[in-house]
Fold Tryptophan synthase beta chain.
Amino acid sequence: MKTSKHITPDELGFYGEFGGAYIPELLRPAIDELLTSFRSFCFTDAFRAEYLDLLKNYVGRPTPLYFAKNYAQKYGAKIYFKREDLCHTGAHKINNTIGQILLAKHMGKTEIIAETGAGQHGVATATVCALMGLKCIVYMGEKDMERQAPNVQRMQMLGAEVRPATCGSKTLKDATNEAIRHWINFPDSYYLIGSVVGPHPYPQMVAYFQSVISEEIQNQLHENGLKIPHKVIACVGGGSNAAGAFYHFYDLEETALIAVEAAGEGLKSGKSAATSILGSPGVLHGSLTLLMQDSNGQVAEPHSISAGLDYPGIGPMHANSISTGRTTSLSVTDQEALHAALECSRLEGIIPALESAHALAALPKLPFLKDEIVIVNLSGRGDKDMNTYQEAFKNL
Ligand SMILES: *Cc1c(COP(=O)(O)O)cnc(C)c1O
C-alpha cells in the first residue's frame, strides 16, 4: 500500500483537517466491518489477481495513453489523453465499482445499494451487480430520473431496481439521504459509493481502486521513453477520476496536479459548482470537507451543465491537497466546457463527456514550456451528452 500523506489518511480517516466518519452510531458496526474487510482483503494477491483480470478482460484496460498531436501543435506542449472514455460503460467509474463489488462479494453481501445523480454511477453499479448476480437497488432523485431517462432504462435493463427519492429538491442529495436511510434500516446491505467522498474508508478505498489510471500512465510514459509528466489535468466532481490520475504523482514535486471544477454560469452567478473556491469546511455525506453552503450551514444547490460535476462538495483528500497547495484548482464555465468539447471533436475526432471537456478547457488557461509533457484525463465519452451538445450547437 502506498503511504504518501496525500493519499493515506490517519487512523480516523483524516487528510489534514478533512475527512473522518461523521455517521449515525447505528452505522458504526457496518463501517467498522467495511474498514476491516478493505484492509484485510483488498491488498492480497488473490484480490489483485481477480481485480486486474476483470479490468483487463471486462473493462478493457489498460486504456491507451494517446498522443494528441493536433492539440500538441496548437498548444505547444506534448499533450497526451488518458482514454478512460474507452472503458466499458463509457467512463472511469467502472474501475471503482469492480473493486467494491469484489469486496462486497468477499464480505458475503447479497444486496447492493447506491445513489446516483446523473445515473452514470448507477449504471456502473448495476453493471457489476449483473455480472456478479447480486441484487441492486439504486436511489435517484425523482427529478433526475426524468432528466436522465436513458440511464434509468439502462439500469432497469441491467436488472437493477431504481427507487425515486421524492423529498426536497428530488436530486442527488435527497437520493443520498434515502440510501443512507436504507443502510441504517438494513445494515447488512453493501453501500457502494461512487466517488472519493463519504465517510472513511470510502475516499481512501475509491482512490485506491482508481489509482490504476496513474499506474498505467507511469508505465505508458516509460514505454515511450518518457519519465514523468509536468502537468496532470483532471476534472473534479467528487474527485475520483482526479484521485486516480494524480495518485502516483503526489510525491513527485516536478509534476503539477491541476483539478478543474465547474464554474457553471460563472463564479459570482450563484449557479456554480466550484467548491474549492466558493466552499467552506462543513460535514457532507459523512465527512468533514469543503462544501458550498449558506450562512446557516444549509447546503447550497450546485449548478453545472455537466451532471457529473454538479455536486456541492469535494472529496476530503482534494480539500486537503488544494488547501496545502499541492493541487492547483481551476474553474471552467459551462460555455468554456462546451467550446472545449467542440474543439476536441473537431481536432482529434473524439467527442468527450461534458465533465472531461472541463479538463480540456483548462488548456488555454495554462502556460506551457515547449516539450512539456501534459496529461489530460479524458474521464468519459460524450454519447450521454449528445442532447446538450445538439442544443448548444444547433446554430453551427
Ligand atoms: C461521474 C463523472 C465524473 C465526476 O466524478 P469524479 O468522481 O469527480 O471523477 C467525471 N467524468 C465523468 C465522465 C463522469 O461520469
Notes: The chain has a mean pLDDT of 96. The first strand starts at residue 14 and ends at 15.
